[in-house]
Structures are given as C-alpha cells and as structure tokens.
C-alpha cells in the first residue's frame, strides 16, 4: 500500500497521475510517499475531436507535467517510474482497455498501451470513481480508514470501495456501481432504463429536474428569476445557490436529496459496515444544508453500531482526488 | 483458506462445528479437508430455559459429536483441535461475546469462553449468516467462487460476504445486514422500525403477511381452506404449497417475493460484482416459481456484465451449511 511504501533509495520516485473525465483531463505528479501534488493541470477533454486527439492531449500533458516537475524538484527522468490512469466506464483492467465510455464515445480503446507506447513508461488503468476514492483515502478525507465507501456525485453517481485497505474491484472490475442501487422499486425512471435508482434522484441533473418539477407545480421560488425564467438553465449548482439564499423550494429539494442519499448510504452501511464514507462532487457545496439531514436519514435507517463505527465526510481533494488516486493505484499495483 | 489446507500429518485433524439458532442447535464434526460431515445432530434450542441450560446443551452436544466421530473414524481425542461456533446477533468476534441476541434473550454472553472452558478445546465465534455463507462456499453451492454474497431467508433475512476468498466482516463485525437494505424508501414498515427494508417484503413472516393481506382484499385463494379459514396460520410454507398447486393468489405472492428479492440482489450485484449469490432458507423450496422471476428482475435491474459474471443459486446444504461454515471459520482463523 502506498502509505506504507518507503522510498527505495535516496532519490525519490515519482508517478504521474491522469484523471480522464468527460469534460476535463487533469494531470499531475506525486512522489511515492504522497507528500505533495506537483504540476497539477487541467485541460478540456474535447471528446468530440475523436479518441486520437484526446490520447495525444493526455500524452502531451504527461510530458509537460514531467518537465514542470523536473524543473521544480531537480529530479532526473529516470525518477519517473510510471503513469496511473483513471478513466470512466467499464474497463478491462488486466488488458488496460476502456470497454465502453459513452461520454467519450469510446469502445474497446487500449488506452494503457497507447499511453505506454507514447510516453515510454509503465502504466496502469483503473476506474475513475475507484481512483477518486483511493485518492481521498491516501492523502484526503478518508485517511487512516480501513474500509471506505467513496461516492462521487456529478452527472452520474459513481462509487469506489476500499476494503481492508485495498481497492475492491469485484469479479469483473464492475464493483461500486452505487448510483444504480434501487432505493424505490417503483420510483423515478433512470437513464440506465430502470426505475428508482439512487442516480435518478440525487445526481446533478436529477437535482435540477426535481427543482424544475416543483416550479412547474407552481411552487414559488427565486430559482426561476436566477435563470431569467429559462427553467432549462437550472442546474444543481443554481439549486444550491438558491438554497443558501433561503429559498424554501430549493431548500426542500436539497433536503430531499439528502434523504435519498441517506437511504442509499444507509444501505451501504448495513452491508459494508465501513469506517468512512467520503462524498465528493458538486453536491458537497450544499454543506450542512445537505449533510445534516443526510446524517439524520442514515441514523434513522442504519443500525446504531454500524452508524457509530462510521464517519461520513465531504472529500477534501475536489480538484485532484482522481489524480492522487491514479498515482496510488499505480503504486499499489507496482510494489 | 480451508480449501487450501493440507493435513499437517498422517493423522487428520477434526473440528467440531456448532450452529446455534433461535429454534435449533445443530452440531457436527468435519475433517480439516472438508471431505465429509460426521455425527451431524440437531436439538431444540429451548432458549426459554435460560442461557445456562442452552450452553450446557451445546457442550453436551459437542462431547457427544466427538464420541460418535471417534467411534466412526477411530480418531484420538487429540485429533480434535477445536470448535467453531456460529451464533446470531451482533457479536464481538475478538472477545468471543454475543452482544445482543433477541431470539435467545441474551446480552453480553461470553459464549466462546464458556465453551472453551467446558470442552477444553480452542474455539472461535462468528455470525450465523457468515457461517452459512462460508459453508456453502467451502463444500456447497458456491464452491470455487471468489466473491460470494450469501442470503439466508427465514424469520429474518441475513447475509454474509466472502470477498477475494475470505469472510468480510466490516469495521465492527456488522457487515452483511442485507435484510435491512431499503428497496422502497416509503414502503412497508419493518420490525427494525424503518420503512421499505427488503426483510419487510421477503422474509418468511412478510411473505405470509402479504398473502393474508391479499386474501383480506377478497381475492379468492385455496390458501384459506388450506389453513381451515384461520388466516393467522398461513406461513410462507403454506404459500409455497398453494403456489405449487397453481393457486393464482399464492403464485402472485411468490412472484412479488421474487421481484423484491431481485431488486435487493441487483443492488448487491451492482455494488459487489460477485461471481456467486447463494440463497438459503425455506424460500428456496418455491423452486423455479421463485428463481425464474427473480433472475428476470435481476437482469432488468443490474448491469449486463455484472449479471453475466454471476450465478444465482439455491444453497445445497440446507441442514448443515451453518455447521460446515463454523468449522471453516475455525480453520481460517487457526491456520
């Protein structure tokens, strides 16, 4: 495990981390002791330009990060031992292939080999939500925990599991699809085709949609004026802003979000009995307005000893958890 | 792991397994290679007579099992190396204490020490649902799997998790409380005080109750004649019987049970990505009438690669999984 890795010589080893998302690519460098983040940079993914262009951009960002990090640390190129990559979608970790990534329009792309060939370094590939969880565990909010559930809330809801100090991948690298947990078997339709998934209630777009529905039901709100009457412009972000301003409708939407998330998290507590749940993504901006009712719902639904064993915290590495975790996965797989 | 344990000498070692339930105590002996079950016996628990009497009975059954097994195998007393105990309720495994067992009326009972003192052998204590899962994995229906979810459906719904070939206990020995997963956040009230738990739909008593509700709603059924008009006598068992006879109401109740279980199991597939789910308990008597709609619901709700990675099977050790698993836990903890 990275936390327990001692430098193998006086010259510290460095690893490049890549966090590939549908909107942005983030790349940075860390020494193997995890003590700092170096040369952290973000660029738009521009998946519309095609896989070749995206892979080019990733490799260029890796080279740039190494150049900047060498200038900052005085390290030689040989001290850079590898690249950890976090990517969305079902993956074949063993072969380093992105099987399907709808947001990128990719299918069966051998991303690890492409990066290794171009950069000339060893590389590993893991799921982006797994990386974000491992990042928060290695140097962030879940530090010191043994069993961690990580939940990343954005356009979708992703999850990662650390059990007994290691990422748990499941039997076909698909573990942690927390967003598609049924919390209401006859409930709202989800993009996945099912009904009542957590994601259909608590993802960013679902939060915005529930707000629009409430406004269309003629409940008064400052939300419509915030978006100049164009309800389609409402996002989860505008809901948090209106909630902070005390708008009753927005506050109700945030409270409901907390209840849905609380039911999902209680399920995870009752089955995994983790010592830490770390929640990342825009939704954490809602602060206490979210976390207070969320904790109350978890206490209501999960067993007391399970609740007492667990802290539920917001992530503290919003811009870099994915990169930090990608570095950590590389180190866990190359000890 | 027991499967990989070779006998340490020519004289095989034997372990006694104890499965303590609210209704019955089952005790048996196995050699450390798991090749056979010896001297398997069951007696009523009679928890109403008090903890002392129950512990006496357990110890007497352990002694009897050793005597019978020695007569059958010619083994010496020294070849019996320990006792594995499976017991209900939240436990403190480290101290070997049953913290709370409502069905037994126990609180903070140091069961492991009591048995060790009386029998003069090393002992381990683990949760009964964990033991049942480990038993099906060691010599039963989940054999050969790496990641297993075990579900035991009786008066309640219990669960056990085997991840990467070992029992997963969670941060405070409470992992696997599958019965209290919310599948309908505004749904039926559960005995635990919450709403919409899987157990409130698919436990034995919940199945009987849903059948009674349908009859009270004036739906015709042979069920009422099966119990001589005394609806309170309907059990899950009578529902399965009526379903087998083709009674439409009972068949609908079984189909609904399958759908509820399917939603719960789909949640477990999407989060754990196991290669085997093994279902034990009376509900498996419903056979294909249960498993066909259950599989259909799982396919509808879980991701395809996750469904394809997993087989869902009934347990094949209905009388002895708990004992077999108790032996296996002893061996896993005493390698």
From TrEMBL, chains A, B:
Superkingdom of the source species: Bacteria
SUPFAM superfamilies with a match to the protein in the record: Actin-like ATPase domain
Cited Gene3D superfamilies: 3.30.420.40
A Pfam family annotated for this UniProt entry: ROK
Family to which this protein belongs: Belongs to the ROK (NagC/XylR) family.
Protein's name in the database: ROK family protein
């Amino acid at each position: 495990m990275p936390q327990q890795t001692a430098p193998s010589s006086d010259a510290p080893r460095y690893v490049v981390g890549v966090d590939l998302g549908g909107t942005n690519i983030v790349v940075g460098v860390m020494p193997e002791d995890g003590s700092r983040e170096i040369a952290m940079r973000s660029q738009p993914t521009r998946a519309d330009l095609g896989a070749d262009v995206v892979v080019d951009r990733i490799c260029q960002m890796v080279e740039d990060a190494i150049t900047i990090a060498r200038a900052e640390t005085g390290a030689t190129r040989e001290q850079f031992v590898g690249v950890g990559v976090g990517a969305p979608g079902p993956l074949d970790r063993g072969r380093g292939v992105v099987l399907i990534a709808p947001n990128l329009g990719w299918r069966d792309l051998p991303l690890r080999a492409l990066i290794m060939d171009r950069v000339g370094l060893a590389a590993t590939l893991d799921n982006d939500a797994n990386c974000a969880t491992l990042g928060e565990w290695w140097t962030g909010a879940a530090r010191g925990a043994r069993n961690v559930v990580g939940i990343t809330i954005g356009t979708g809801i992703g999850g990662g599991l650390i059990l007994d100090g290691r990422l748990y991948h499941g039997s076909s690298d698909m573990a942690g699809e927390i967003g598609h947990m049924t919390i209401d078997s006859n409930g709202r339709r989800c993009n996945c085709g099912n009904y009542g998934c957590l994601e259909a209630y608590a993802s960013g777009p679902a939060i915005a949609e529930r707000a629009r529905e409430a406004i269309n039901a003629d409940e008064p709100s400052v939300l419509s004026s915030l978006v100049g009457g164009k309800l389609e412009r409402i996002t989860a972000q505008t809901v948090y802003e209106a909630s902070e301003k005390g708008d009753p409708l927005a506050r109700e939407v945030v409270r409901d979000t907390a209840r849905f998330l609380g039911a999902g998290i209680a399920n995870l507590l009752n089955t995994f009995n983790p010592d830490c749940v770390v929640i990342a993504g825009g939704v954490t901006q809602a602060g206490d307005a979210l976390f207070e009712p969320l904790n109350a719902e978890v206490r209501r639904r999960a067993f007391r000893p399970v609740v007492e064993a667990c802290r539920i915290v917001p992530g503290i590495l919003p811009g870099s958890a994915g990169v930090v975790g990608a570095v950590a996965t590389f180190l866990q797989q190359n000890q």
